[in-house]
Design brief:
The protein is mostly helical. It has helices at 16-28, 47-66, 77-89, 96-120, 124-151, 165-185, 189-204, 211-222, 228-247, 249-260, 287-290, 292-301, 312-315, 319-322, 338-365, 376-394, 406-420; strands spanning 34-36, 44-46. Strands 1-2 form a two-stranded antiparallel ribbon. Strand 1 (34-36) and strand 2 form a beta hairpin.
C-alpha cells in the first residue's frame, strides 16, 4: 500500500455533505468519551471512532456510486507491514480479542481515516476549514484543562476532555506546533497574539513531564525559520512560559520536580512488599522508566512475533521479564513507551514498520516548507514538520495511538500528503 505520485485533480472533489461530516468528525475526535463493553477491562469504543467508521462507510459508498477515476491515496507500505506483524502475532497471543482490537485500530486510524482525510481535504479552503475545526476542540480542551488546573486537587485530573494529564499533554504537543508555525507567518497581529496566548495557556496546563518540554523545544525550533519580527514575538512568549513553568509551584512540581525525581511515589503505586528484610523502605525507580527493562526483555525473548498485539499489559508484569527489579502494583496510566510496546507485542518487524511509517512522513514534511507559497502555507508546512517530530518524541514517553489522539495523528499525516501534492496552492488543478 503505497501512495501514488500523481493526483488526478481533474476529477471532482468529494461532495459537500461528506466534507461537512469530516469536519464534524475532526471536531469531536480529540475526546475520549466512549462506551465500555466491560466497565473495568474494556474494550472501550470511542464515540468518535464510531462516527469515523460511519463516515468511512459513507465515503466508500460515494466512491463506488460516483465511479470517479481519481486514484485513492493509500497509506505507505509500512502500514501493511504493521498489520501483517499484528496478524502474525495472534498465533502466540494470550488474548485474541486484544489482537482484534489492535488490528481494528490500526486499520481505522492509519488506513481508513487517513485515506478519508486525504481524499476529502484536497483544496486550500478545505484544509483551512479542517484546521479551524481542529482548533475548536483544542480550545475547548485548553479551557476545560484551565478550569481543572485551578480546581482539581490531583494534577492527573488536569486532562481537558481526555482521560489524564499524559494524554492531554501528548495531544497538545502534537497539535501546538501547527498553530505556532502558522502564527509565525501570519500578517495579522491580533490573530498572532491570540494563537500565542492560546499556546501559553496550553503549555501552562500541560502537567506531564517530559512531554511539556518536548512541546517547548519543538516549537522553539520552528522560530529559526521565521521572519525576524515574528521570531522575536515567539521567543518572548516561549521565554515567559518557560520561566512561569519553573517558578509556579504546581507546574514546577509536575514538570521539573517529577522529572528530576526518579523515585516512584504515591499510594496507588505501592509495592507488594514495601520494606526489605532488614526493615528498610524499598527504593524503586518510577515504573514508567523501570518498565523499559522488562519491555526490552520481552522483546528480546519474543523477537520474531512478539507476545501478541494488544497483549502488552497481560505480559509486562511477569516475573521472568522483571527479574530482580522491584515491581510496583500499578503505574501511572498512559506512560508506556509506544516503540517498546509495539516491539514486544508485534516483534522486531512490527517495530521497524512503525519507525518506517514515521520516517515516511518525516521525509515528506521535512522539506515541505520549501515547496509551498510564502505566508500561511509556509507556516503550516513548518508546523507540520514540527508536529511529526513531536509525535515521534512523545511516543517514547506515552502513546498517541489511542482513542482521542489516533484520529488526529492520521489527520496530520493526511494533511502532510495533500499539502505536498499542491493542495495549498491557489487552485487544486496543479500537480505536485
Amino acid at each position: 500500500m503505497n501512495d501514488t505520485s500523481d493526483l488526478q485533480t481533474e476529477q471532482p472533489d468529494a461532495p459537500e455533505w461528506l466534507y461537512r461530516l469530516v469536519l464534524l468528525l475532526i471536531v469531536i475526535a480529540p475526546t475520549q468519551f466512549a462506551y465500555a463493553l466491560d466497565p473495568k477491562h474494556g474494550p472501550y469504543i470511542a464515540y468518535a471512532d464510531v462516527l469515523c467508521a460511519i463516515v468511512v462507510g459513507l465515503w466508500l459508498l460515494w466512491r463506488l456510486s460516483a465511479r470517479t477515476g481519481k486514484r485513492l491515496l493509500w497509506p505507505p507500505v509500512a502500514v501493511a507491514g504493521l498489520l501483517l506483524a499484528a496478524l502474525l502475532s495472534a498465533g502466540v497471543a494470550e488474548s485474541l480479542k486484544a489482537v482484534g482490537v489492535e488490528i481494528a485500530q490500526i486499520a481505522l486510524y492509519f488506513v481508513a481515516a487517513y485515506m478519508l482525510f486525504a481524499d476529502v481535504l484536497t483544496t486550500r479552503s478545505r484544509i483551512r476549514a479542517a484546521l479551524i475545526a481542529l482548533s475548536i476542540p483544542t480550545a475547548i480542551n485548553i479551557i476545560v484543562a484551565a478550569y481543572q488546573y485551578f480546581t482539581a486537587d490531583d494534577v492527573m485530573e488536569v486532562a481537558g476532555l481526555l482521560s489524564n494529564r499524559n494524554l492531554y499533554s501528548a495531544y497538545m504537543a502534537m497539535v501546538l506546533p501547527i498553530g505556532f508555525g502558522i502564527m509565525l507567518w501570519l500578517r495579522t497581529p491580533r490573530l498572532q497574539w491570540l494563537i500565542a496566548l492560546g499556546t501559553a495557556a496550553a503549555i501552562l496546563t500541560m502537567l506531564s513531564t517530559p512531554t511539556v518540554w518536548i512541546a517547548i523545544l519543538v516549537i522553539a525550533a520552528l522560530t529559526r525559520l521565521a521572519h525576524r519580527e515574528a521570531a522575536k514575538l515567539a521567543i518572548g512568549v516561549l521565554f515567559t512560559i518557560t520561566v512561569a513553568i519553573i517558578i509556579i509551584p504546581k507546574n514546577h512540581h509536575a514538570t521539573v520536580g517529577e522529572l528530576l525525581d526518579p523515585q516512584e511515589r504515591g499510594h496507588m503505586y505501592k509495592l507488594a512488599e514495601e520494606v526489605t528484610p532488614d526493615g528498610e523502605a524499598v527504593y524503586v525507580v518510577k515504573k514508567r522508566w523501570l518498565e523499559w527493562k522488562p519491555a526490552l526483555n520481552m522483546m528480546a525473548e519474543n523477537f520474531v512475533t512478539g507476545v501478541g498485539a494488544g497483549n502488552f499489559q497481560l505480559n509486562i508484569g511477569r516475573s521472568e521479564y522483571y527479574g530482580f527489579l522491584p515491581n510496583v502494583k500499578k503505574s501511572e496510566p498512559d506512560t508506556n513507551n509506544l516503540y517498546l510496546v509495539v516491539g514486544s507485542t508485534m516483534g522486531f518487524a512490527g517495530l521497524i514498520c512503525l519507525i518506517a511509517y514515521l520516517l515516511h512522513f518525516w521525509g515528506r514534511a521535512g522539506t515541505l516548507w520549501l515547496k509551498v507559497e510564502d505566508g500561511t502555507p509556509t507556516g503550516l508546512a513548518v508546523g507540520l514538520a514540527g508536529s511529526v517530530v513531536a509525535i515521534a518524541l512523545v511516543n517514547i514517553f506515552t502513546s498517541l495511538f489511542v482513542r482521542g489522539t489516533g484520529l488526529i495523528w492520521a489527520l496530520i499525516f493526511a494533511i502532510i500528503i495533500v499539502t505536498s501534492r499542491g493542495a495549498m496552492r491557489e487552485t487544486s488543478s496543479h500537480r505536485a
